[in-house]
Amino acid sequence: MAEGPEKTEKAARIDTSVAHSARIWDYWTGGKDYYEVDREAGDRILAVYPDMAVLARVGRHFIGRTVRYLAAEAGIRQFLDIGTGLPTVDNTHEVAQRVAPESRIVYTDNDPLVLAHAHALLTSTAEGATAYVEADVEQPDRILEAASGTLDLSRPVAVMLMGILAHVSDYDEARAIVRRLMDALPSGSYLAVRDGTDTDPRYVKALEGYNRSGAVPYHPRSPEQVAGFLDGLEVVEPGVVPCPQWRPEAPDMETRKVIALYGGVGRKP
Q1: Based on the number of CB atoms within 10 Å of its own CB, is 237 exposed (0-12), middle (13-18) or buried (19 or more)?
Q2: pLDDT tens digits for 160-195?
Q3: What residues does 79 pair with on adjacent strands?
Q4: Distances in Å between the alpha carbon of 251 and those of 116, 170, 178, 256?
Q5: Rounded-to-integer distance, Cα 66 and Cα 160, Å
Q6: Is residue 39 exposed (0-12), middle (13-18) or buried (19+ Cβ within 10 Å)?
Q7: Mean pLDDT by 10 residues, the chain (269 residues)
């Protein structure tokens, strides 16, 4: 991505007076691309739910494991990562292209700060490709149209919806977004989802405070509702489970206790 006036204009659109989920998440995961309003909101939530920073790391680890599975075991070479958030360690393209350098990845997000930093997401191997689309998860048709410039939508694609569907307040609308995305893709495509759930009262209470911060509200759902996003797909073992239990690569006692974050992967027949 070009530097200079274009990046300056994008940065000028960033509202530093209102907390934003991508920046709060960046704060919890030890990043540096957040503002005072985001740190304050993050600290208020940590005061109610101290495990939130652990949960944030669990969420990142889950992304890495799912991408490695999709690239190494499922043979996927195209990824559509919606609601990617700020660049961090082991982004989708980095994990996928370590397994298969020819992998092609499209990222989407609606946060101007993510857009301003998107050059960090646009690195790629010579054999593969990465692209960035500015769009909201509630614009699936726009996302698909823009992604088709980089991805061949007649071939299998893995759709990544990590922590984003809970920002859609209406559950039926969220399911409709998933169906629209998956209906546009061929057999052999995959969906990977991860969202916060209502299984821990402390987490639910912390989110009530988060939703008062000015950031886009986040609505935790039941594990059954998260699993509902995979309806009609062939669910990969071990199913929709607490994220630390999804194909763990090494024992991690710190994250075993996190039960408020569920995820799973499904294949389109």
Answers
A1: exposed
A2: 999 999 999 999 999 999 999 999 999 999 999 999
A3: 105, 158
A4: 37, 36, 32, 9
A5: 9
A6: middle
A7: 42 68 81 86 88 88 96 98 85 96 95 78 92 94 97 98 96 98 98 96 89 86 98 98 90 65 97
Report how far residue 248's alpha carbon sits from residue 251's, in angstroms, rounded to the nearest whole number.
Answer: 7
Burial profile 68-78: b = 16 or more Cβ within 10 angstroms, e = fewer: bbbbeebebbb
Contacts of 253 (CB under 8 A, 6+ apart): none
Based on the number of CB atoms within 10 Å of its own CB, is 169 exposed (0-12), middle (13-18) or buried (19 or more)?
A: exposed
Distance separating alpha carbons of residues 130 and 166, to the nearest angstrom: 26
Tokens 């998860």 found at: 137
Per DSSP, 269 falls in state -
The pair of three-digit structure tokens given for residue 113, joined into one six-digit string: 């700060």
Distance CA 62, CA 136 (A): 22
Q: Tokens in use for 87?
A: 């660049």
156 close to 135: Cβ distance less than 8 angstroms: no
How many of the other CB atoms lie within 10 Å of CB of 184?
Answer: 18
What would the 3-class secondary structure string for 64-125 be?
HHHHHHHHHHCCCCEEEEECCCCCCCCCHHHHHHHHCCCCEEEEEECCHHHHHCHHHCCCCC
Q: How is residue 133 written in tokens?
A: 């689309």
The angle, 0 to 180 degrees and rounded to 10, between the axes of the packed helices 21-28 and 52-68 is 100
151: left (phi over 0), alpha (psi -120 to 50) or beta: beta
Q: From start to end of the chain, where are the E strands?
A: 78-82, 104-109, 129-134, 158-162, 190-196, 234-235, 241-242, 261-267
